[in-house]
Structures are given as structure tokens and as C-alpha cells.
Write a structure and sequence with these properties.
CATH class of the largest domain: Alpha Beta
Strand content: 25-35%
Structural class: alpha/beta
Number of domains: 2
Distance between the termini: 46 Å
Number of strands: 28
GO molecular function, one term: CoA-ligase activity
Number of helices: 15
Family: Belongs to the ATP-dependent AMP-binding enzyme family.
Pfam family, one: AMP-binding
CATH superfamily of the largest domain: ANL, N-terminal domain
Mean pLDDT: 93
Radius of gyration: 23 Å
Keywords: Ligase
Strand order of the largest sheet: 3-2-12-11-13-14-15-16-17
Protein name: Acyl-CoA synthetase (AMP-forming)/AMP-acid ligase II
Amino acid sequence: MIFSGERVPVPDMSLTSYVLQRAEHNAARVAAVDVAGENAHTYGELASAVRRAATGLHARGFRKGDVLAMLTPNVPEYPIAFHAAAVAGGTVMVLNPLDTTDELVGHLNDAGARFLVVLPSEAARAGELRARSTVEEIVVFGEADGATPFASLLASADAPPAVAIDPAQDVVALLHSSGTTGYPKGVMLTHRNMVANVLQTSRVAPLGEDEKVLAVPPFHHAFGLIMVLNASLLQGATLITMPRFDPEAYLKAIEQHRITRLYVVPTIAVLLAKSPLVDRYDLSSVREIVSGGAALDPEIAALVRQRLGCHIGQGYGLTEALVSFMQTGVPVAPGSVGRNAPNIECKIVDVTTGEELGPNRNGEILIRGPHRMKGYLNAEEAADEVIEADGFLRTGDLGHFNDAGELIIVDRIKELIKYKGQQVSPAELEAVVMAHPNVADAAVVGVPDEEASEVPKAFVVTRGPATPEEIMAFVAERVAPYKKIRQLEFIDEIPRTPVGKIERRSLVARERAA
């Protein structure tokens, strides 16, 4: 059984042409400004800078199919460099500044990146990356020894050479994902993939031209690149960029800039729901909050709605296919990620047999649509493992549709704990552990057990006095016997990715080392 969203035509055009199609209409409106208010670009300035930088890149030998790598946090120049490379016919690889040098060298060489864009503070590191990779030129936002100032590219004419782009085939963005298994792989997104994604976002989470978006989710992640950066520019909103998250600076920025839209990960939602810091700031300008990156606890969502008096909804997708589902203003079931975004088809299949399942039956979630990635860079076999012959993408997530047509995510299939043949969801147990009044954060993994194959172990950060026995008893009263926490360890911090997902693999590695 296939569950489908509404059909909406996807424009057959390049990403930049689509995203900046109303730039002249919004020419005087601020498109992007840093959180300090010192560095701003109007839509007219941004569109002109994109064209001039594209010309500048072409003059330095950048050609169609070449790769420009972005290794910077969220700054106002980010969209200019990104779209300049796209206009020049190139592919932009967005990189995580928190990655190790060895990891970055691997990504650069895998893609054959020729240009690398950094901040002055990263110039020394960029030099090492150039020495060990295919990078030929370093471009810097500002000035640094041995690097080309980005401003020098803007001295070019406002008329870049025409480049023939095939939206359905030409890759405009490279992001990284571990997919359903394994080492991070380059996710290839074509112009059409990105246009479809931005279109979907603008339909399920529309913005007004008067709105101000606090751009905290990193642009090197699909959530930040598509939902925050490009969808905001398409709709004429103003981006206020923050290079890194700090609780007080975040709340201060909302108050000072009169932010209307927040894109958050669950950890920020917890801050908004529970932190006493919130009471020190005026957050009344916030109209809407969109949560992504990881599952949002329904109780936390309810607390945010009650405290801030605005709607908060969560979306679901993955780097290979974002955004696929989104809660809207209509009532949704607790734990739901909403209904299909436009143009999305989804089916649930039995994990073992591949049989298509109907409502209220758990199985693997498969997604198909124009936003689905072209494939993995230099990893055709890995792509074949996750893309079915009929075009559906295997997500590696377990879930079901309810009777209202909403998708309920149960867990990651590969992270399910096998206890005496029973499947136990770490996410479900984490939610129960988090309900304990003296638990601040928690993660659950499966650890080997001679009798049961695996048993659930919880790693817990406390906010008050508690013993392992007390918390395990608390959980045991609320779950089936086979789901009980069998081991518990207190730690100082739960390891998470930049978008808030629990890094369970590091906890498993920690357990093995012990």
C-alpha cells in the first residue's frame, strides 16, 4: 500500500534561478545578516554578489562539474559562495567544521574538490588540507596569508558566462550521511532534487516576506541547507545567522532581532521548554517553531507550546530525502511526524519479507519522490542497497501509518535491541527514562548478554539525586517486562551530533572498551 502526498509541479530550472527568482522584487529587503548586526546583504546585493562571484570563479578556472567545498559556520556570505558556484555550473560540497582533518581530507579527495572556502581562523588548517588533498585554491571570507579573499571575486562583472545545466542530472550539492549503515558517504543532490526539496518546505512550512529566521541549524546539514537557508531565501524572509549555538546568545538574538521563525533540534526545544533562562527574555515575536534532526518528545512540544504560545511541529526526512513528512497546524497524534509532504510517496514493508503493509503495522519506511538523492558519490553499490528498482529509498527507519494517515516513527532498525528474540526500541525507553523528574538526558543502547543476546543499557545525565536502582524501577513500572532497563550508568553528557541525534555508536564503543 502506497501513501501519497498532494501533487505539485516541480519547476524545471536550476536551483539558484528558483531560489532567487524574487530577489529583484525583494531587492531592498535584508536577505542575510549576522547576529551582531554588523554584516548584512539585501536581496538585491545578494543576487548581484552571486553573479559577480560566479564570474570571479570562472575567471580563476572554475568550470562546470568542478567542486567547491564550504568549510565555514553559518555566516551571511555562505549563500553567496554556495550559489555562485552553482551558477558557474559547479557542485558545492558542504563540510562540517567539527570533522577531523583526516575526515575532511577523505571527503575532499573523494569529491576531487578544487576550491575550499573557509574563515580566516581556519586558514592554517586549510593549508594542511590543501597539502593533503586535491584542493588547488583556498578562498577566505576576509583575509589570510596564502588565501584568495572572497571579496576579490566580487570585483568581477555582473554577468557570469552562460552554463547549460540539466536540472535532473547535474549535481549541485554534496552532503554527507552514513545512510542506513556504515561510513559517511557523499549524498549527491541534483538541481531538481534541491528545487523539489525547497518547494516542499515552502508548502509545508510557509514563511511570509516580513519574517525573520534565526539560522542556527548548520548549513552543512540538510536541515540547515534546505529548510533554513534556501527555503527562507525563496520566500523573501530575513536570515539572522549564528555561527554556533550558545543558550543565552540564542535567546538574546530572538529578543533583539524579533525573530518570528525558529528551526530547532530537540535539545533546543528542551531549552525552550524547561530552562529558567527563557524567563529573562521576551520571545513573544516567535510565531512558529519547526523541529527536525531527531525525534521530538510530544511532552516537550506541549511544554513549548504552552510556554511560548506558538505552534511547534516536527518534520521527518533524511539527508538522502529531506523533507518527506511535516506536521502542520492540524491536530496530530502524539509522536507523529505528520503527513506526506507534496510529491512524496511512502510505503511500509515487512523488515524480513519485504511485504507491503497497511496502517498500524510496523515495518521499514520507504520513500519516493523528486527530492530523493541521485545516489552516493563513488559508492554505486551502497546506493543500490538503499534505492529499490522502483525508485523507493530504504530509510532504515521503523514505523507505521495511523488511521489518520500520519507517520509514526518507532526507531532506527539497526539500533533496535534484540532481547530474547523481542525487538526493543531505544527511543521508546529513552522517553520513559526522561520522564523521571531527576533525569536531564538519557540514551539507551543494546549491550551483549550471554543469555538474552542483548539487554538494554541506559546512559543517564541527572539533574537531581537518583540511584540506578531507582531509575530502573521507575522504567520497569511503565514498560513490558522484556523492555526493562537491565543496566544503567551515570555520565556527564550524552554524545550527540550537531543536529541533536544521539551518537549511540560512540556509547557502544565506550561499552566495548570498558
